[in-house]
Amino acid sequence: MATIKRLGVLTSGGDAPGMNAAIRAVLLTAASYNIEVVGFKHGYIGLLEQEYKTLMPQHVQNIIQRGGTILKSARCPALQTPEGPKLAAATLHQLNIDALIVIGGDGSFRGALEIAKHYQGQIIGVPGTIDNDVDGTDNTIGYATAIDTALDAIDKIRDTADAFERIFLVELMGRHSGFIALSAGIAGGAEQIICPEFGPLSAEDLRRVLTPIQHAQLLMGKASYIIVVAENSYPGGTTALADALTKAIGIECRACILGHIQRGGSPVGADRILGSKLGAYAVEQLLQGAHLQMAGEVNGELSLYPLALTGERTKAIDPFLVRWQQQVGSA
Ligand SMILES: Nc1ncnc2c1ncn2[C@@H]1O[C@H](COP(=O)(O)OP(=O)(O)OP(=O)(O)O)[C@@H](O)[C@H]1O
Ligand SMILES: O=P(O)(O)OC[C@H]1O[C@](O)(CO)[C@@H](O)[C@@H]1O
What we know:
Layout: E1 6-11, H1 19-32, E2 36-40, H2 44-48, E3 52-55, H3 83-94, E4 99-104, H4 106-116, E5 122-127, H5 143-164, E6 167-172, H6 179-187, E7 192-194, H7 207-220, E8 225-230, H8 238-249, E9 253-257, H9 269-287, E10 293-298, E11 301-306, H10 319-328
Parallel strand pairs: 1-2, 1-4, 4-5, 5-10, 6-8, 6-9, 7-8
Antiparallel strand pairs: 2-3, 10-11
The protein binds adenosine-5'-triphosphate and 6-O-phosphono-beta-D-fructofuranose.
6-O-phosphono-beta-D-fructofuranose binds near residues 14, 75, 130 and 173.
Cofactor: Mg(2+)
Protein name: 6-phosphofructokinase
Keywords: Allosteric enzyme, ATP-binding, Cytoplasm, Glycolysis, Kinase, Magnesium, Metal-binding, Nucleotide-binding, Transferase
């Protein structure tokens, strides 16, 4: 068993519902092994600027149901300078931190790998991002809640779209991936889903979107029609796409950008459970000597995955749902 007396923990990148459950599990598990936990604030900024506090059980009481992260999060460009990782490692050494747990996405894990080049202790990652774009785990903490939040919005937009028999484009988050768009689009009964995995969509290529709309109108007449669009799918964004479609078909298409609403809210049960499980597992695996690994869950089994491979983008959106959506999308 590795000797760990002091453990650091931080949340980095986009916050995700369930991060608090993971922090809580880290603290409670560590406490059960008499390990002290230091929480760094604002992601890697806390390491660079020595902004931290020792976490006690009372700090994690009554947080499992809260969105956001009690440690705050941030993007930290300073870690991407040559001096950043050295400074971060120096803080960890100075504070006698034997191991660090980074809760975040694959970008945060790249940062962890840079720090590891200068740090003598162990580092482990816990996947927390609404985007679900991290290899080595079926789901990331926050993804399930984001789907439900997006779904709630889609259902509400459907009501008004139906009343006015309007075409709506609903833009969902997912910087490089269509996980949220595909899942919420399928569950919300969207007529079309557009996401990066379907290939780039250009102004010259609008026919791909137009033909299914026209087909649906022939079949059903005037009716509500919802297109779920993953962010960054069209040059100029979803409002530009709605404008281009409006011009092309002569029927007003409305855009609704859901934005950061998807990052907030009370985590659903699945995210509380995943956060708790992965937070606890991360501590236990550190004690087993794990280093530069991510604590994930694959096919219901807890497992470690090399941090260096978490951003390879080998995890694909559900191919069955993709095929089915494309098959029925024009009906
Ligand atoms: N190559 C890198 N070198 C050093 N630090 C990095 C590197 N890539 C990312 N980081 C650090 O990790 C932080 C978070 O990364 P990023 O903004 O990509 O979010 P993420 O962890 O992927 O989460 P999300 O996708 O949910 O926003 C960055 O702000 C930066 O501090
Ligand atoms: O809040 P910010 O820094 O604009 O980041 C937005 C990005 O973060 C995420 O919410 C999580 O990675 C993405 O879906 C989105 O593109």
